[in-house]
Amino acid sequence: IEEKEEANLVKQDKLVRTKNERVPRLSDLTMRPVFAGRKTQGNLESHTNGLRFISTRGEIVDIMYANVKHAIFQPCENEIMVLIHFHLKNPIMVGKKKQQDIQFFTEVIDASQAVDAGKRSMYDPDEMDDEQRERQLKKRLNEAFKDFARKVEGVARKNGYSLEFDIPYRDLSFIGNPHKEMVSIQPTLNCLCNLTETPFFVVDLSDIDHVHFERVTFMSKAFDMVLVNKDFTKQPYRIDMIANEEKDSIQEWLTDMEISYTEGPMNLNWKQIMSHVLGDDRFYMDTEEDEVTAKEAGWEFLRMFGRDEADDEEGSEEESGYSEVSEEESEEDADSADEDFDTDEDDESEFDGDEDLEEQGMDWEDMEREAAADDRRKKRDGEEDVRPAKRKRRR
Predict the structure, then answer these.
(1) Which run of H or of E encompasses 200?
(2) What is the pLDDT of residues 166-197, one digit of tens each?
């Protein structure tokens, strides 16, 4: 196994030890990762072309200045440790495994004491003394590590190497899940990292081409962040379960770092997306190969995810509005039809007499003739009644 691990290693220079000068040294450090599953403690020294860690069991780890990509000093504030972390350009062997991140730290308080600390009373004089000693120890260790980092920078600069220690920006930190547990993610000048918990999470910002935010909706309480590597053959980094309250500050920080970002409501198949992007020679151009047909330039196509849903929602709203209007119109039509029907009934009721006359076969002329005939009949009957009376008077 060790031979397989060493097969792809880049050969490192041999350490040149400093002589005739006092060597910057930090004592009683713990190294991570450990040798063979055992806690590794020892001293760290800064020499001419690199650093050497010597454990109490005689194990040696050399870190060349030329192989250090990022050096980070994280002072102890809310954590239980103060540390110095080296993210390497090329992995080195630690025990039987290749490692690209090497860390040296000192615990300010034991982890078990940190857990038990909440069970004691704040008015206990012994507790107050312990807190005072803890603050003094934090301050002393922070000063010691900071002084060592400054001396290492001086030694490297003196021998023609460029090495600077970054300090994480705590005010920009947020909680997320880069591996399998929720940890504090902190940006530095050149990295986005979590150094307190293992496995370490260190992302070089100069390697990031684009950032996409997944599961960004009004309903969800958290979102996921995907960091796309400039090397499209590599799968993106992920940080899951970030609280929605952190999104604005993260996007402002990305804007300051001049890193583009997009967001969408769903999780994407990044393996398929990266294979598509890798095969697109005109990925960053806004036209197809014919230089006429328009297309989304670069990562703008990620904005399309969710755009269709928005269009569908707008369309459904328009359809619902149309249906509401049509229903209102139909109701108005029904009402007007009822009104017309009522008026028709009224009109028909007004002409009921005429219809009766028409059913009897009489019109106005017939009625006039019949009335005239009735008048003549009545007149004739009256004359007949008068004639007998005159005859009786004559007698």
Answers:
(1) none
(2) 999 999 999 999 998 999 999 999 999 999 99
Please name which of 181, 151, 176 lies closest in space to residue 165, comparing C-alpha atoms.
151
Reported pTM: 0.72
pLDDT at 119: 54
Q: What are phi and psi of 124, to 5 degrees?
A: -70, 125
Q: Which single residue is written with the structure tokens 């691990």?
A: 5
Burial class (CB in 10 A: 0-12, 13-18, 19+), 73: buried
Report the residue count for the chain: 395
**Bridge partners of residue 45, in order along the sequence:** 25, 52
Going from the C-alpha of 91 to that of each of 6, 163, 291, the distances in angstroms are: 10, 18, 44
For residue 102, count CB atoms less than 10 angstroms from its CB and return exposed for 0-12, middle for 13-18, buried for 19 or more: buried
Q: At what angle do helices 307-350 and 352-360 cross, to 10 degrees?
A: 60
CA 144 to chain centre: 40
Band of residue 118 on the pLDDT scale cut at 50, 70, 90: low
